[in-house]
Every structure is written in structure tokens, then in C-alpha cells.
Amino acid sequence: MLRPPPLSVYIHLPWCVHKCPYCDFNSHEKNQATFQIDKKNYLNAIIKQINLADTDGRKIHSIFFGGGTPSLFDPDEINQILIAIKKKYSLNPSCEVTLEANPGTIDLPYFGGYQQIGINRLSLGIQSFNNKHLKELGRIHSADDAYIVAERANQIFHRVNLDLMFALPDQTLNDLENDIETALKLSPQHISYYHLTIEPNTLFHRFPPKLPDDDLSAEFQEHIFKKLSMHHYEHYETSAHTKEGGACLHNLNYWQFGDYLGFGAGAHSKITKNDEIKRLSCYKNPQQYISQANNENFYIEQKTITQNDSIFEFMLNALRLNEGFQINLFESRTGVNFNNIAPEVNEALERGLIILTDDIIKPTNLGQNYLNDLLQIFLRE
Ligand code: SF4
Q1: Does the beta carbon of 194 lie inside 6 Å of ligand 1?
Q2: I need a labelling partner for 179 at 20 to 30 A (CA). Which of 172, 250, 274, 339 fits?
Q3: Separation of alpha carbons 149 and 106, rounded Å
Q4: CA-proximal residue: ligand 1, atom 2 (nearest)
Q5: Which domains does the chain carry?
Q6: Is 25 in the pocket of ligand 1 (CB under 6 A)?
Q7: What are phi and psi of 57, to 5 degrees?
């Protein structure tokens, strides 16, 4: 029998000042002439979707404003969404409420406003503290902007995440070292360090930059892990590093195959109810999402996921966690008896990709480095 897991809320705010050449998110350059009216219509649509959602009486474990660039919305606008959520749902007293911000869009006084309306975690898209790399990545902020904004964020929010990227065009070990040192000087609670990858449907895919080769990228990654761990950051997920007690509850809920309600263009929901798991996807294009909202129609797709899909999706998420997962978490989140996946688990054990200690399954270093190979084992027809 499937037990409903913790429930999170994700709000997608899809506009940016400029589309970065590496970005494959559902993000769109704002139209200066229509942006104020687009925002108003979009907020109305999101609030309508929240009001019509089936709450099932469950409490909200975390809320995440992602994008796009949520910091293009001022504190009053973000608060309109929060008020709608609070009217409809009760929040856990410890509910984590994160907002993503771009250092190039932040009005510093906004920070106080965000904090006052209940944002208790700020995630800053820094990517690099090197002006040459910021320019190549198409970022709209300078290294100085990033530093000033991060410093200010640290003064206002106890919980700050810095997003950084490595394996950047022509990046050297010395460049990387400077980025890490600058981040450490700021001493944020959490650092997410992503490997720059070239995704289809991006400008970088059409005009690929010269990136460090695999060996150098692996050296960079090892250096990041070593350096952050020396400064007491625990590496707890593929790209996530935290000081004690600072793991991102919202993302942990994804990685532990929790439930979530996604509001806004292209947002996805996963809902466990009546012994089945459903996935819902909203219309992706913001204008289409707004126009469909007029008909109270938000979802382009709704489907019940099969048992085989849920096994794979659980592994896809949980094997990203360095501490792995307990067998009973797997059973309660997927409704699948562990014996059902014994052949796959045995194969992964024999290939040295996981270890099983008591009732916990963890990826080994080899499993982390060859995560795709490990996941393939759990992919069923
Ligand atoms: S700011 Fe973020 S969401 Fe917007 S285009 Fe750049 S990477 Fe994508």
C-alpha cells in the first residue's frame, strides 16, 4: 500500500532578462514592452491554479520559487502567491521557502521584503566569480555584483545557497581555485556546484565553446570535493554541498521520491493518492499557460505511472544521494516489494556500483562516477 510522502510546492516563474547560451530550462526572455502585463496575467493564472488544486488535507513541507528568474517579481508579487498557498494549505511549522535570485536583477532592498513575507532560504545563481567566464556564459551580472549581492544575502538570510558551475570554456585549475576561494570567503550555508554540460536546444549546442576535456573536468570535480570538504561542507548529493544541518529540504524531497505540486508554465506534479502515483504537466509556454488558465485548464498531460517507471524514477533520484536510501523508504514510496528488484540489486552489487549494509543501499564511488550505467540496470522495458 502506498503511503503519501511529504508534499512540496514548486512555483515556476519563467522569464529572464536574457537567455543564457547553456540554458535548457523553460525560461523566456522578457518582453520589455509587455512584461508588467504578462506578470499580472501570469500571477492571476497561478493563483487560479492554486485555488483549484486538490489539497487532500496534506501539509506543505517546502515551497520553492524557481525559474526563469523569480527575482524579476518583487516581494509584493511573490507574496500574492504565498498568500494564495497559505489560504489553501497549511504549512508545516518548519516549512522551507526558497526563492531563486539572479544577482543581475536584484534590487538589494528586495531582500528585506522577501524575508518579511516568509522567504527563509535564498538561492543565488552566481555561476562564477570570473568576469571572463560570466561573459562567456551570457550572465547579466559581473563578479563584483555577485559578491556584493551574496554578501548582502548572507546578512539577511540565515540560509543562502550559491549556484556555481565548473568545466567552463577555457577554465584553468587556477580559475577554479579563485572561484572556490571567493565562494568560501562568503561562507554560504550551501553550495551547489554544477558541471557545465551542453544540452540540446541551446545556443552552446549550435555553437559549442571549447570546454575542458573529461580528464581535466574530473580533476576539477575532485578538487571541488576536496576543498569544500576541508571547509566542513558535506557533499550529500551529486552537486550539493552543505554546512551541518543545511541540506535543501525541497530538493531532498525530490531525491527521496516525495510528492510535489507544480504551479506555473511547464511545472510538473507528482501525487500519490488512492494507491497510485500520478504525474501532471502544465502547459509549457507561458502565454499558452495563461490563456488555458482562462478555461481552468492547466495540464497538457496527466498519467498514472507504472510500477516499472516508479522503480526507475525512485533510483534516478535516490541514487544521487551519497548516503543512499533505506529499503523501507523504497518500498513505501514505490509500493514495490524489495524482493521484486533483487536481480537488479544483485547485478549492481556484483559490478561494485552499490553497497548494501544492513538495510541501506548506497552508491559506491564507482556508482557515483558511472551513475548512468547504474541507473540503466533499473530500467525495465
Ligand atoms: S538566468 Fe537561469 S533560467 Fe534564465 S536563462 Fe540564464 S540559466 Fe536559464
Answers
A1: no
A2: 250
A3: 8
A4: 68
A5: 7-252 (3.20.20.70), 318-381 (1.10.10)
A6: yes
A7: 70, 10
